[in-house]
Amino acid sequence: MHFAQRSLMSVAVLAALGSTAFAQEVVKIGHVGPTSGGIAHLGKDNEMGARMAIDELNAKGVTIGGKKVKFELLAEDDAGDPKQGTAVAQKLADAKVMGVVGHLNSGTSIPASKVYSDAGIPQISPSATNPKFTRNGYKTTFRVVADDVHLGGTLGRYAVNELKGKSIAVIDDRTAYGQGVAEEFEKAVKAAGGSIAERQFTTDKATDFTAILTAVKSKKPDVVFYGGMDAVAGPMIRQMKQLGINAKFMGGDGICSSELPKLAAGSMADGQVICAEAGGVEGKQKVGMDKFKADFKKKFNVDVQIYAPYVYDAVNVMVAAMVKAGSAEPAKYLPVLAKTTNYHGVTGDITFDEKGDIKNGALTLFTYKGEKREEMKVVR
Which residues form the signal peptide (predicted)? Predict the structure, then answer.
C-alpha cells in the first residue's frame, strides 16, 4: 500500500476514534415542560432552572468514570398536554438521553413515566404532585417535591383549623393535578370536622367562570379552594371580586407563583390568597435558596416563578448519582440514584424512599401582600 494511502487511512481511523471518544464525553439530559400555552411562564421557569444547572456543571468540568464530560440539555415542550407529553418522551428516548428532568404537570408526567420506564431512562419530576405518579411500580420514576396527599391535606386542615372555614367551596380543573389536590383537600377538610358546601368543576383552558361562581356565591363561602394552575386562578379571583365574593382563596403549588397577582389584574386583597408550595427551607438552608434566586435573576433577568430551584436540584441529584456510579449509563447509575440520601440541595435535603418519593418533604405556606408573595411558615 502506498504511504500516502496508509497516512490517509490513519487519519480516517483517528478521526473515527476521535468522534467516538467525543460522543462518549457528551451526556445528554432531557428536560420537558410546557413552554407554550397558558402556563408557559412556569414551563420556561423550569427550563431555565435546568439550563442554570447544566451551565454550572459544564463550567466546573465534571468527571465521570475518569472521563471529563460535557452535559447537553435537550429541552422539549409538552404544552401541558398528555398526548404531546408522551410524544416528546418518546423523542427523548429515541435521542438516547441519559436521564430526564420533568415533566411539570402530573397529567403529562404520569403517561410519560411509562415511556421512560420502558426505555430504562431515569425521570425526576420537579413538580408533579399527583400520588399516582410514583405508584405505578416503575423503578425509573422519582420526584423532589411532596405529593398531593401532603399538599392538599395540609391546606384542608389549615382551612378548618386556622381559617375557621364554615362554608367551604371546592373547584378543580379536572386535570390529574387539579383534581388530585382538590380531592385531598376535601378529604382533609372532612377529617378535620369541616364540610364542603359547594363542589364545582372547570377546565384548564376556561376563561369565564360566571356560572360556577354564581353557584358558589349562593352558599356564602368564607373559603374557596381551587385545584389547578395560576393561569386560571388569576381570572377566577378577578371574577370573584366582580361578583362580590369576599372569601379567602386557597390553592396548591400550581397557583403559588409570582405571576398570580398580574394574572388577577389587581383584584387580590392583602392576605386573601393562601397557597402551598411543595417544598421549603428553614434556617441556614435559606441562605442557599436566597443565593440561587439572586443568581437566577442575574443570569436570566427574571424572578423565579415556582419550580426552577427544584429542577436545578433534580439535575444535580441525577449528575451526582452518575459521578458516584462512575457512569452516565442509566442501568449503572439508576440504583445509585434510588439510594440518594441527604443530598444537600437549594430546596433542602433530598432522600428518596422505595417509591421514588422524597422523604419527609416540606411544604411552605404563602400569602400575597402588596402583590408580592410572602412566606407564612414551613410545614412538614
Answer: 1-23
